[in-house]
Specification:
Strand content of chain B: under 5%
Radius of gyration of chain A: 19 Å
Largest interface: A-B, 32 and 27 residues
Helix content of chain B: 55-70%
Oligomer: heterodimer
Number of strands of chain A: 10
Distance between the termini of chain A: 16 Å
Shape of chain B: elongated
Strand order of the largest sheet of chain B: 2-1-3-4
Number of helices of chain A: 10
Radius of gyration of chain B: 30 Å
Order of helices and strands of chain B: HHEHEHEEHHHHHHHHHHH
Largest sheet of chain A: 6 strands, mixed
Distance between the termini of chain B: 29 Å
Chain lengths: 274, 388
């Protein structure tokens, strides 16, 4: 059962998670009391993100789960410096999101939920464009672009305009775009949401490879099976607040549920069909 | 400021634009064809219409038996074929005849009928009037001869009008009246799609978030976008001006009576250089302003609904700037768009008031800088970027 006091639960889990620190060398992402409020004419002050804290280490995949409108995307946008926090802070590889936003963005590869590809450019052109924005030296960029095209099996469509690509091809291109400047941190917002299973597997494999290479990854998803399979730790966010965070074993221990789907529904206080 | 990033964004936007058919149409094709269309097709059409009118201006309606015999020589002189009708006005109106003639019972008032909207009718009426005037002069001469008076008593002196304006100035005056209007209008319409595509289009296609999440600074990104937009608008101006001068030099002029005037419009490097210099701050102003406005919109359609009124707004001062009688005073040189339209006319006439030239370009540079800052600030404003 989930305790009535989610803050206590969170505190408990975080204390358990401290043991996990021993296996991870560096806290690449440290989020402390991050909040973002919006003023809405009808609803007044909306707390899109409310005092969220967590940390993610090198070589770790941190899953961020939550229903639509829970605050996942706003949290990711805050960490990526697209939005400014109302209060709280975060550091990415030692750079503060409020005082060093450009340095923070240099540390991250951000995959938005909508892919965001230029329809009239080819995947190769897109990779080169984003590489140049990150000021990757030209010889490195050429090599890196070829490597990514090879690694993500994009050879057949690397020089085809993006508007002619299937959604799987587009998502591969989007993933490659986030990796082109070889950032130590990846922020992935539902990267497999629109993909068929075989393509999703290719994307998952590339994410696991990124993890093996020591990347620190925040992974937002709606697919519970995928989160269980990929993520080292999982956090559930709802109404802008972090309800729980920990490894699958820690979440099971805290909720008494076995499957992530049940844990998720329990935390959202929704009945499980299972 | 990071020139490498700015150039990267500029380069990408230009490639992106050149692959967009809508942009190509408004930015390249329209400016290139507009003047050949105006001078060539429209001129030819007008020439054809005149020829057609001439072949149709062949008949005159008369009331059966109502015309005094004395007028028969005049009608013969006009070369018009007589059609006898019951009502002259109706016959001319319903095209039974090109023109018509009635004479008052005392023979003192001769009325020539024409249908004002029909070129052939006007032409026939002119023929008839000329023939009648000649006939009247003949009668007067005969009467003077009878009275043993010399014809010169009727014309003790002749009044002649001399135009001191050079042919170049006249050409510039006529051409300048429409050039500023057309070039400025095409610049704004040419910049519309690029500015929408680079701002609201990015929001709609969801590419903006990925772009601003890149390590590039937002100011560098928007500078690249503004420059791309300005390049597109200036390219429109270059193509429009090039198309104009090519049309003039290429001999595609078919407008009757305009050959001499238009042929004298200067196409020397100084005139072209001054025109392009005048258009540069206008292009920067237009590009930055349209990009900033487009950023406010959430979608392509919304941006279109914001920018269309802007183009309407531009039409008025640019058209006013070309009107005869308007002069570019130092105070009027402060009015954007109007000042450029007026200055273009003055440049074509070869009569550039130096003070107004400086004030016009200086004020346009200031307006361009304001629009530039506005666009940069908008792009750095998260409530503008993430407006939902």
């Amino acid at each position: 059962m989930v305790p009535d006091e989610p803050v206590q639960l969170l505190a408990g889990i975080e204390s358990i998670s401290l043991s996990h620190l021993a296996t991870i060398d560096v806290r690449m992402i440290q989020v402390q009391g991050l909040s973002r409020h919006f003023e809405d004419k009808k609803r007044g002050t909306v707390k899109a993100v409310d005092n969220v804290s967590f940390s993610v280490g090198k070589g770790e995949i941190f899953g961020l789960l939550g229903p639509n409108g829970a605050g996942k995307s706003t949290t990711l946008r805050l960490i990526s410096t697209l939005l400014k926090p109302t209060s709280g802070t975060a550091t990415i590889n030692g750079f503060n999101i409020s005082t060093n936003p450009a340095d923070v963005r240099r540390q991250i590869g951000f995959l938005t939920g909508d892919m965001g590809l230029y329809a009239r450019l080819t995947p190769r052109e897109i990779l080169q464009f984003f590489g140049r924005l990150a000021e990757v030296p030209e010889p490195d960029l050429t090599r890196r672009t070829s490597e990514l095209i090879e690694r993500l099996d994009m050879r057949d469509f690397a020089d085809t305009r993006a508007d002619k690509l299937s959604s799987g091809m587009k998502q591969k291109t989007a993933i490659a775009r986030t990796l082109v400047h070889d950032p130590p941190v990846l922020i992935l917002d539902e990267p497999t949401a629109t993909l068929d299973l075989p393509t999703a597997r290719v994307i998952e494999a590339s994410i696991l490879e990124a993890k093996r290479m020591g990347k620190c990854i925040i992974y937002s998803t709606h697919i519970m099976e995928e989160a269980e399979y990929l993520c080292d730790r999982i956090a559930v966010i709802n109404h802008g607040q972090l309800k729980i965070s920990g490894t699958m074993d820690e979440l099971r221990a805290a909720t008494g549920k076995q499957r992530l789907r049940e844990i998720f529904l329990e935390l959202l206080e929704l009945p499980s069909a299972a | 400021m990071n020139p490498s990033v700015i150039f990267t964004v500029l380069n990408k936007e230009i490639i992106d634009l050149l692959r967009d058919r809508r942009t190509l149409l408004s930015m390249v094709i329209l400016p290139v064809i507009v003047f050949p269309l105006v001078f060539g097709v429209m001129g030819r059409f007008m020439g054809d219409a005149e020829k057609k009118a001439a072949t149709e201006a062949t008949t005159v309606a008369l009331i059966k038996g109502a015309l005094p015999d004395a007028f028969s020589p005049a009608i013969r002189r006009s070369g018009l074929k007589i059609i006898e009708v019951d009502n002259v006005a109706t016959a001319v109106e319903n095209k039974t005849a090109a023109t018509g003639l009635t004479v008052s019972p005392d023979g003192k008032i001769v009325s020539v009928y024409a249908e004002g909207t029909r070129q052939s009718s006007g032409l026939a009426a002119d023929k008839l009037r000329t023939a009648l005037n000649e006939y009247r002069d003949l009668l007067v001469l005969e009467k003077l001869k009878t009275a043993k008076l010399d014809a010169s008593v009727l014309k003790p002196f002749t009044v002649k009008r001399e135009n001191v304006a050079s042919e170049r100035k006249m050409g510039g005056f006529l051409l300048g009246s429409m050039l500023g209007y057309i070039v400025i209008l095409l610049m704004f319409s040419g910049g519309m799609y690029p500015s929408i595509d680079m701002a609201a289009g990015e929001k709609e296609r969801k590419t903006l978030e990925a772009l601003i999440a890149s390590p590039a600074r937002r100011t560098d990104i928007v500078l690249g976008k503004i420059l791309a937009c300005v390049a597109a608008i200036y390219a429109t101006a270059l193509l429009t001006t090039g198309s104009l001068f090519f049309s003039l030099k290429g001999g595609g002029i078919e407008m009757k009576g305009m050959e001499k005037i238009i042929g004298n419009v200067p196409t020397d490097p100084q005139t072209i250089g001054l025109m392009l210099l005048t258009l540069l701050p206008v292009a920067v102003m237009a590009g930055a302003l349209m990009l900033a406005i487009s950023l406010m919109a959430r979608s392509f359609k919304e941006a279109q609904s914001y920018l269309t009124p802007l183009i309407m707004l531009v039409i008025f001062p640019s058209l006013l700037g070309g009107l005869p009688g308007m002069e570019l005073t130092p105070v009027l040189s402060l009015i954007p768009i109007f000042n450029s339209s007026q200055l273009l006319k003055a440049i074509l006439q070869g009569d550039v008031p130096m003070l107004s030239f400086v004030i016009t370009n200086a004020s346009n540079i200031v307006y361009a800088a304001i629009c530039f800052v506005f666009a940069v600030r908008s792009f750095n404003n998260e409530s503008v970027l993430f407006r939902t």
